[in-house]
Design brief:
mainly alpha, 14 helices, 60% helix, 2 domains
Amino acid sequence: MRVDWVHPSWRDLVIESLAANPDERRRFLRATGVDGAAVALSREGGIAGERERPLLGEDADWDALGDGLHHLCADLDEADATRLLEVLAAAGDDPEVAALRQLVLKRLAWNGKVLSVDAIAAWAAVASTLDPRPEPPAVAMTWLELEPSAAPRTPEEMERMADWLRLAEILHDHDTELLDGLGFPSRYSLLLADFAGSAPADEPPAERDLRIESLGRLAFLDERLAGLALGESIMLSQPALEPVADLPTPISNGFPIERVLRDL
């Protein structure tokens, strides 16, 4: 049986019980899932936020969590692995946390796989805290998967364009050498200029929001198109004006006004 939610008071009782029992605590850490790792690494807890990592009070606890994550990584799909990386990225700068980050990045073995942009973003956030930086996943494979051949005209194309520009931003922040090697933005200058200056008039709201967000991202990534992209983004952000309804034609009450005026 899997329990998806428990009342915080019950959760706190379980944590307090584990914190008081080293053997049970380490058994829990060795069998942990992503949610258990998040609880163990949390720096806030208790009624008033006074509890900080009650399950990791001793070196043996960290070792047990490391063992648990070592085994866990082999069974994680990409979505859960991304969640685990997000937990580790927010876990602080302790040497023990750095060791867990190195372990997890190595165990995930993402080389040679096409990853989602969310997964690459989570990987980059963790890797940026480590020195030396670990070997990156095959980001170029994801780039080629998303690379557009023309400015987007359909919702599906807009979603891919948004992911592609988001990936470009991640590379700009974490691997400019690879981004330059991919030829961005110069290689895509015509496509990007077309995207920056032309938006479909009847785009659905969700894709319109993606377009506005992506135009802002493009303005940051390509200074030559910054003005055009920002201008288009601002224009698209304005609420559409409601058409003014035609005024109703006055209804005559049958009184012969014109004839009266002629008789004056």
